[in-house]
Amino acid sequence: MQTVKVALFSSEQDRSYPIYIGNALLEQVDLLLPHLPQKRVAIVTNTTVAPLYLDQFRRALERHGICSVAIILPDGEDHKNWQTLNLIFDALLEQRCERKTTLIALGGGVIGDLTGFAAATYLRGVPFIQIPTTLLAQVDSSVGGKTGINHPLGKNLIGAFYQPRMVLTDSATLTTLPDRELRAGIAEVIKYGLIRDADFFMWLEQNITGLITRNADILNKAICRSCEIKAEIVAADERESGVRALLNLGHTFGHAIENAMGYGVWLHGEAVAVGTIMAANLSKQLEFINESDFERICSIFQKIGLPVSAPKLSPDDYLSLMKLDKKVEEGRIRFILLKRIGEAMMSHDIPASTLREALLTCMANE
């Protein structure tokens, strides 16, 4: 097992927390015990994950004297909304859950975001723990305290910054993850190499086969390095006023794709893969990266089997959707671009003609 610490300090308190990463950790309830204010928890999961892991986890809790309430939600990005959030509140109120009742998110990114937002707002704030069961959630959404739901006009527009007490990442849960979702999660892993660590990106290029075939050692190393990078960035900028925005490489374009195609039609990681290529292409147009680097970026996504061409929408449609992004400032879209592989930057001032050309180029092969 490896441990990554998310270091969050303020003048009032230390809100740092550990991320435990390893194989077969789900039943190691002793890791959770120091973070539970009472021996009662509410487990939020979905109809896909519950048959796989819920009973196993609840039995492990019971062996340590912890009773649990199970809240099983419908699965899918299209359920990340107010209606599903209210199902959590209804269950918590019906079961008389208190301020010391810890909410545990057992599932992927949608479950983590919904549970975190519920925890931030139920009784004005209760503890919560992340147990992510998809690769995308393990390397991204479970770490950093972003919680929320979608709105018909845009993704993750309603939510709160609310940190978990801990994250328990059991890579053994990836054995039941569908291939498509595994590939989507690898897209977020690649992002970390592109924005922060060129050596890690090169290592990923060399270990693509191991990632796709679910080699445990390679997966754990990829998860650990991804979490280390995210933890460093979150510690420096918890509420995304600066450097944390770099984590959104590919997301401005990607969220527009998810919105345009309908939530759940494209997996988040698939949209981020194409969005990253769109951002890389724009970086090339602006002469930050060269053709060779752009080809390396396209190649790694292709080798994984992720989409590399953007859906055919008009440039105006893309621009309209991107202007709904959370990162818009004073009406200007904030783009995350690449100076080089391993270093990202923010830019507001992209010439309209350059942006339109980049959009059209990325749609050319669809």
Multimeric status of the protein: single chain
Strand order of the largest sheet: 4-3-5-6
> What's the count of strands?
11
Outline: globular
Q: Report the uncertain regions.
A: none
For the record, give the distance between the C-alpha atoms at the N and C termini, rounded to a whole number: 43 Å
The arrangement of helices and strands along the chain is EEEHEHEHEHEEEHHHHHHHHEEH
Largest sheet: 4 strands, parallel
Query: Helix content range of the residues, please?
Result: 40-55%
What Rg, in angstroms, do the CA atoms define? 20 Å
Strand-residue proportion? 15-25%
Number of helical segments with 4 or more residues: 13
Computed structural class: alpha/beta
User: How confident overall, as mean pLDDT?
Assistant: 94
Model description:
- The protein has 366 residues and is of the alpha/beta class.
- Helices cover 45% and strands 18% of the residues.
- Strand 5 (102-107), helix 3 and strand 6 form a beta-alpha-beta unit.
- The protein is globular.
- The termini are far apart.
